[in-house]
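Exercise 7.
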Amino acid sequence: MKLFRPSRHERYISDKQYYAWFELAYTAVDVSAALLFVAGSVMFFSQEWQTAGTWCFLIGSVCFALKPTLRIIREFRYVEEDDYEDLAKRYENSV
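Solution. The predicted structure, written as tokens, is:
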């Protein structure tokens, strides 16, 4: 019965906002990494810009490492709140 088992998303409006902010951060990190790799690739065409290009690749790689880090932070929050339902749904959608 939905009345007695409300979804975590329906119980707290702030949870929807929290989820939305994580998705926004995830997308921003993804775009940043992609742009840094494109810039680094272009910089490698010039001998003078190769050092800057290498830094772009390094920072882009750190951005790619932030992506799963953001996801796991959000998932730990679900676990802290005993919200295994959302984690299970996420697993079912990925399989």
